[in-house]
Description:
Helices cover 21% and strands 35% of the residues. The protein is an alpha+beta fold. It has three domains: 12-71 and 208-238, Pseudouridine synthase (2-Layer Sandwich), CATH 3.30.2350; 73-205, Pseudouridine synthase, CATH 3.30.2350.10; 242-305, Nuclear Transport Factor 2, Chain: A. Strands 1, 2, 3, 4, 7, 10, 11, 12, 13 and 14 form a ten-stranded mixed beta sheet that branches. Strand 5 and strand 6 (94-97) form a beta hairpin. The chain is globular. The mean pLDDT is 88.
Amino acid sequence: MARKRKGRPVHGWIVIDKPKGMSSSAVVGRVRRALDAEKAGHGGTLDPLATGVLPIALGEATKTVSFVMDGVKGYRCWVRFGSATSTDDAEGEVIETSDVRPTRAEIEAVLAEFTGDVVQVPPAFSALKVDGRRAYTLARAGEEVEMKPRTVRIDAVTLADMPADDLAVVDVACGKGTYIRALARDLARRLGTVGHVADLRRTRSGPFRESGAISLDSLEALGHSAPLEEIVLPILTALDDIPALALTEDEAGNMRHGMAVPANAVLARAPGTQAETGKTVVVVFADTPVALARIEDGQIRPVRVLNL
């Protein structure tokens, strides 16, 4: 006998203001229970130390997670100068100290060096895999972990505040895969000292911002009393940056069955839409997303069909 699924079909996004000290997966579990949702996943891990924007995909929205993870991220980072830690954040053991404290002017003078395509060595305490095992597992076991450099994209780093001579608050806009802990570590080294992340808050993840986030406590207080449409954002919210093409009822039916539809007819109904060959689009019928698709050889071919 087939195993009965638990929960109800809920489709869309909810943006949680993640509390400190909780893992991203634990947040997903609490959101799923609060909404009695059948399926849920997050749109990009936040360390337990960090707070802020954690988008949670529900139901068929889980098929659009990659578009959020590939989007621009925003962070506010508190960099503590004078001590390096084993984890590059406040949770690790102090492994090195320095009496050097950079000035505001010295910090601002080097920030431009950390924008553009930047080479980083990820922290040993990270979820990246080394020889098939998580780096943090090896590091916690006391094993030597050699992390390979990688290039990431950092769009902007600005000094927002300097509340103490050993503490700088920086705002960062960056792309997928950027380690803010590595940025803080490398910034301190460039300034002739050592440092680590004392606190971290994500302010943006793709189209989602902290102004639209809800606390876990608030969500759980609402329970099942609030209509879902008041707290769950549409699936299309995560797809604002890709072209949307409208289908007829027959075209939508074909697409839902995995069949391609002629691109010319669809594009003729959307003059001015920048939908290039090889690019991903979202196809919709009557404002309901039907599939993520790609234009190839004059056809719009479904990549991920959304069962809505």
